[in-house]
Design brief:
Helix 1 packs across helix 8, helix 2 crosses helix 4 and helix 5 packs antiparallel against helix 6. The chain is α/β, with parallel strands linked by helices. It starts with a strand and ends with a helix.
Length: 178
């Protein structure tokens, strides 16, 4: 049985974590967002915003973490595995911030493939900031657009998940996995 790798992506504050947690609570294997872990580790070392201070290093760490998740997902015996963001997210963020990055970033987007991508649109009513999310709502909208471009550029047709309750969004995703 081949494990299907399903990405849940979207700009900051769109409800990805809540949807991933709901899928996990329903018995699905889920990989959580890598960036929060990278940010917390940097903060322990006294670096408040690693992405702002060393964007290439931050993005390389994210790329490594997402590749590791992809490889781990491929070795699971589960039918479906959900990932909170995928490899093309790294390229999208680098493009959004106008940062240069080596060609390997795009190469790994072509090597580590996903079976389906769902994108959660910006939703002002649920958007909140926190210690790891420093973007404004307007920036979150622009990041969403860059994510859509990045996935399309790498050959995906992300399915937009409508706004609604966590249960409605989770059901939408599961219903669109045929």
């Amino acid at each position: 049985m081949k494990t299907r790798k399903i990405v849940i992506t979207g700009g900051p504050g769109t409800g990805k974590t809540s949807v991933i947690e709901a899928l996990e609570n329903n018995g699905y294997f889920c990989f959580h967002e890598v960036s929060r872990e990278v940010i917390r580790e940097a903060q322990k070392k006294g670096i408040d915003q690693l992405f702002l201070e060393e964007p290439l290093l931050f993005s390389e760490l994210l790329l490594e973490g997402r590749i590791r998740q992809h490889e781990q997902a491929a070795n699971l015996s589960a039918e479906l595995v959900f990932l909170d963001r995928g490899v093309p997210d790294v390229v999208a963020y680098m493009n959004y911030f106008g940062n240069d990055y080596p060609p390997v970033f795009n190469r790994v987007c072509r090597e580590y493939l996903y079976d389906k991508v769902f994108i959660l649109p910006p939703w002002k009513e649920i958007y909140t900031g926190d210690n790891e999310r420093y973007e404004t709502y307007e920036q979150a909208v622009a990041i969403h657009d860059e994510l859509a471009r990045s996935y399309a550029h790498h050959g995906y047709e992300p399915v937009e998940v409508p706004c609604g309750s966590i249960q409605e969004r989770t059901s939408f995703i599961l219903d669109h996995l045929e």
